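Structure representation.

___
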Amino acid sequence: MSEKNLTIRDIARLSGVSKSTVSRIISNTGYVKEATREKVENVINELGYTPNVSAKELSLSRSDTIGIFIGDISNQYFQEILRGAESVISDSSFFPFICLAGTEKRQKLYIEELMKRRVAGVIFSSSFIYDEEAISALVNSTKAISVQTDIKGIPNIDIDNYSAAYSIGRLIAGNGHKKIGYIDSYNTIHSLSERLRGFRDALKDSGLNEDSLIYTVTDSNYLAFDAARDLLKDRSITAIQCANDHISSNVYSVINEMGLKIPDDVSLSGFDGLPLNDLIQPKLTSVKQPLYDMGQMAAKKLIELIETGETGKEDLILDYTLIEGQSVLKK
């Protein structure tokens, strides 16, 4: 048999392994036992086989690409997770493919592209899932993991949102605030619903009734401006808690625009602990999530799943820190 006529099928038959195993060894993707790799490489060297990486049979192997779905790139929440994931992937044999999937159309486009590329794995950190059926098809075709995103059947990396929100709720109530505004996101993901539940329970356990909490939802982070203006019309509200720091930054602007001062006129607190908080005065009281570490852990765990071939199902819960800034005043 001449070298020109050799195929991956021939290498697999002579090595006593599957075609997919030969493809993984040639493309250096996925996990293969060292003894198996050595056996296949010996056959390749003996026969003088030179793989054509564009050959049709190689198209069945996984690529070395890892897709990363994120939402609004202008939001530091997504930036930090992306930075963490990219730092791990760039030091590996894989290549990051960033998917800015902030709209239904873009999410669908990226899903189709990643399916076409036969990506080795996917990280989801886009918060909102527009088409569960399409996402499910992608997840079933590769390895996947999520960061604070609700996708059935794959591991999720998060913090204990209930406990974190409970802590900040107790802090605000403990400072004597009796009427508190809460600005939530329109997103219905589990982490956000747990934050609201924890905050409500904290106020209840602090002796405040349901009427003490003025709850409002903003259709987007940018419409938080309108939500804040509506809340601040009620001058009996002495504190506002935001479901995330991106909303909080917009509320800062509204408070200043209305000629009010933080925390003298109204206390403000958030959730995420974004780097931008260090630039805001007074410094925001917030729950600091280890977003960069979450991104790193997501990438490390995903690469582990790709290389071992295992199917991960267990969620990973990381620690949080309650940051007490100067934005909450004792009444």
User: Anything to note?
Assistant: The first strand starts at residue 65 and ends at 70.
